[in-house]
């Protein structure tokens, strides 16, 4: 167990990638604290972790609510005496054409994905510094923050901003021994993605992904555990893609005929 004795908070840990990260952190020995809005699903994750022999509890807060976020982090530190790992995975998405994007939907996506990450990271870092403790913060971005896709105006903008925020946090927090990195998953087979991706969207992603499939949430969780561990103790300010080669690829030919190149 690479994280035995560590204490982690996973914002957005009740479903999708956040849930998978919470389960994997617990399996590696961390005491996991979920910060979530969905009480029923968060309770299910806690029960699953405890049934597997791990340590977990849930606290309920909206990541956009600064006092509530700070209260959860303060209570976690009061209970465990420390905070080693923060994972900011709370996120929502809307697929709408840019010209028709409602302002209220834009604001909601930006507030959850970007402002929520800012508030969680700021509060956790303040408490770590106050207690003179080193730590690892992992922000969930997306390939949509690096490459534009149709209908992703707010989502893509929010995830690009998370990358910039991650680098800013890394630079300012490094003197305090706090590492900050971002994960940029490609298409991942989660409930949110299934609700957003039509069959045509799925086919388009598969055609442009060299690995030829969507990632599982557990594969993203493995990358998060690495960044949280001592194996990554000199890694900060980095953006790690978990995308099956999507960002590296250009035009793909699945059945490229053999060719002979001659001068």
Fold topology:
Blueprint: E1 7-11, H1 16-27, E2 31-36, H2 39-51, E3 55-60, H3 66-80, E4 85-88, H4 103-130, E5 135-140, H5 153-173, E6 178-185, H6 191-196, H7 199-208, H8 217-228, E7 239-242
Helix pairs in contact: 1-8, 3-4, 4-5
Short synopsis of the structure:
By secondary structure, the protein is an alpha/beta fold.
Architecture overview:
The protein is an alpha/beta fold. The protein has one domain: NAD(P)-binding Rossmann-like Domain (Rossmann fold, 3-Layer(aba) Sandwich). Strands 3-2-1-4-5-6-7 form a 7-stranded parallel β-sheet, sandwiched between helices.
Along the chain, the helix and strand elements come as EHEHEHEHEHEHHHE
Strand percentage: 5-15%
| Helical coverage, percent range | 40-55%
Say what the CATH topology is: Rossmann fold
Question: Which spans of ≥5 residues are poorly predicted at pLDDT below 50?
Answer: none
Q: Mind telling me the CATH superfamily name?
A: NAD(P)-binding Rossmann-like Domain
Distance between the termini: 56 Å
The tally of structural domains comes to: 1
Describe the sheet with the most strands.
Answer: 7 strands, parallel
Mean pLDDT: 94
Please tally the helical runs, counting DSSP H or I stretches of 4 or more residues: 8
CATH architecture: 3-Layer(aba) Sandwich
Shape: globular
| Strand adjacency order, main sheet | 3-2-1-4-5-6-7
Q: Can you identify the CATH class?
A: Alpha Beta
Radius of gyration: 19 Å
Structural class: alpha/beta
């Amino acid at each position: 167990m690479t994280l035995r004795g560590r204490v982690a908070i996973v914002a957005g840990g009740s479903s999708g990638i956040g849930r998978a990260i919470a389960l994997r952190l617990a399996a590696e020995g961390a005491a996991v604290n979920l910060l979530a809005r969905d009480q029923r699903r968060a309770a299910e994750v806690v029960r699953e972790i405890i049934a597997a022999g791990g340590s977990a509890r849930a606290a309920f807060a909206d990541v956009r609510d600064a006092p509530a976020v700070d209260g959860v982090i303060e209570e976690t530190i009061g209970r465990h005496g420390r905070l080693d790992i923060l994972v900011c995975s709370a996120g929502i998405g809307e697929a709408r054409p840019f010209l028709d994007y409602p302002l209220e939907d834009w604001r909601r996506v930006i507030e959850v994905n970007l402002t929520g990450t800012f508030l969680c990271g700021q509060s956790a870092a303040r408490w770590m510094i106050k207690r003179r403790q080193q730590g690892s913060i992992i922000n969930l971005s997306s390939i949509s923050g690096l490459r534009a896709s149709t209908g992703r105006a707010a989502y893509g903008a929010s995830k690009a901003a998370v990358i910039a925020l991650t680098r800013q946090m890394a630079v300012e927090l490094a003197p305090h021994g706090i590492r900050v990195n971002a994960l940029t998953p490609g298409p991942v087979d989660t409930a949110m993605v299934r609700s957003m991706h039509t069959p045509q969207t799925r086919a388009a992603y598969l055609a442009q992904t060299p690995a030829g499939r969507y990632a599982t949430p557990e594969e993203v969780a493995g990358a998060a555990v690495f960044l949280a561990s001592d194996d990554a103790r000199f890694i900060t300010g980095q953006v790690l893609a978990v995308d099956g080669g999507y960002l590296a690829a250009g035009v793909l030919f699945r059945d490229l005929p053999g060719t002979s190149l001659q001068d």
